Amino acid sequence: MIDTFHTGMIAASLCIIIAFFSFLKETDDLHRLLLTDLASVMALFLIALVGTDLAEALILPGLVVTISKLMALAEIYLVKEGLQKNSPSRILDIEVLQSAPAILASILVIYGIILSGFSGGAVAGLGVIFYLVCKGHQERFELIETVSGYAWVAWIAAFFIILIFPSQWFLAVMIAGGAILIKVTAKLSLIGTMRGESDV
Amino acid sequence: MNAEFIIGFGLIILGTVATAWPSPKDYITRLINLELPAFGILLVMLSFDETIALLTFIAVTAISTFLFVRVIEKKEGIP
Predict the structure, then answer these.
(1) Which of A35, A183, A184, B78 is the most exposed place for a label (fewest CB within 10 A)?
(2) Interchain pair A88, B77: CB under 8 A
């Protein structure tokens, strides 16, 4: 009798072989960048097959590593091809992108604050990215960096509380959750400033 | 082995083949085909009750799509 895990393993190995052969045949660098995302999906599928809390704990850092790797590779690609100053002749003009961002961004930020912690930070950060992408931005990097620094200090302080006064663990967990929420939101909102301007 | 797992599993295999050999071989087709295995893995995560992983994966997929669109836009949109 073949169970779920073994079926999944066979499928995953099949997919990995397919992805590997398409990698071998590919010569264009941007196509390879797209296939990198496919490979990361395969890796996540393998981890998800474990199907316990361990899998969930392993998927979160896997996702973070994936997105930071993709961002770095995309920047390297742009620098290598000399496309960094290359702005498109016509920016996408969609009417929803003019009217919707305020409502959608506030919904996402509120939902992120309710979730709290890392995932909440990611969701709230998406809201901020969406707002910045649609509405444009002024140079407010100093403010974002200051907020991010204070959040970092609060996170460290929460760890000291949990080590020195273990009876106050609930307070420490709440501080750490709030701080990591603010920190991830601030970092992700920097991505929203990438489009349009040629300074990044 | 429930229905979500079987559907997600099929979507991952089909999506991998579709992404490995896209029919008109250009960037946008490959980017759109990449959504198929991503949706498949969402269903697999749903069948194993991995809620936080699922939510974070949705957020990360949105950001990576944004990244790819930005790179493709710069590559194709030569003034």
Answers:
(1) B78
(2) yes
B76: closest chain A residue by CA:
A88
CB half-sphere exposure, B18, CA atoms < 13 A: 18
Q: How far is A185 from chain B (nearest CA, A)?
A: 12
Query: What are B6-26's pLDDT values in tens digits?
Result: 898 889 999 999 998 888 888
| Chain B neighbors of A78, CB-CB under 8 A | 71, 74
Question: Is the CB of residue B3 less than 8 Å away from at least one CB of chain A?
Answer: no
Domain residue extents for chain B:
3-76
Is A82 buried (19+), middle (13-18) or exposed (0-12) by CB count in 10 A? exposed
pTM for this entry = 0.72
- ipTM attached to this prediction: 0.89
State residue A198's pLDDT score: 43
Domain chopping of chain A, boundaries: 4-81, 96-191
